[in-house]
Amino acid sequence: MKLQALGPADFLKMPWKNGQGVTTELAVARRSGEDGFDWRISTATVAVPGPFSVFAGIDRSLAIVRGGTLTLNVEGRPDVTLTTRTAPYTFGGELAVSSTPALETDGVPIDDFNVMTRRDGWQHSLTQHRLEGDALTWTLPVTADALALLYCAYGQVRVTFHDGRTLTVAAGNALRIDEVGAGANVCELHADATSADVFLTTLARR
């Protein structure tokens, strides 16, 4: 199992494809072509209403990290309002989507969490959890080329693996896990203090 701690110095900030905002790229598998990736995990800030960039052939999952609520108007679907307590919302990147934020604090944008995978080659899952008290068991993928990423949004998370290794991930940092291997695909997550908020992503080839 290969573990890689990632922090702000490892992340890359870039403008949205449509120029309406800024994305912080946490991890990515780059490729040539218009969109330039097979998969990407990122955060972004949203402060004003507006359209999302279009990503044809990409499956997307979106969740709220902090800062308020975000109402999405998605082509062909009922409107949905996302909060820090709602499950991540999944949709096709080719759909026309616009968003309307409701900020908790004037002038402080919403932070959201995004996972995108190219539909013809990759699939992903995204969950968000508040850790309080009991440990959370996280099952990691073991198929070829699969990987996982933990992002700590609040607090501090202690990650314990089957082989006894323990790592701590602070708020604003991430842990990338590659080469899990059969029979070694479970770890335990504990909040180091009263509570912690984590986003857990797995990616695998189709």
Automatic annotation (TrEMBL):
<dbReference type="InterPro" id="IPR011051">
    <property type="entry name" value="RmlC_Cupin_sf"/>
</dbReference>
<dbReference type="InterPro" id="IPR014710">
    <property type="entry name" value="RmlC-like_jellyroll"/>
</dbReference>
<dbReference type="InterPro" id="IPR010282">
    <property type="entry name" value="Uncharacterised_HutD/Ves"/>
</dbReference>
<dbReference type="Pfam" id="PF05962">
    <property type="entry name" value="HutD"/>
</dbReference>
<protein>
    <submittedName>
        <fullName>Protein Ves</fullName>
    </submittedName>
</protein>
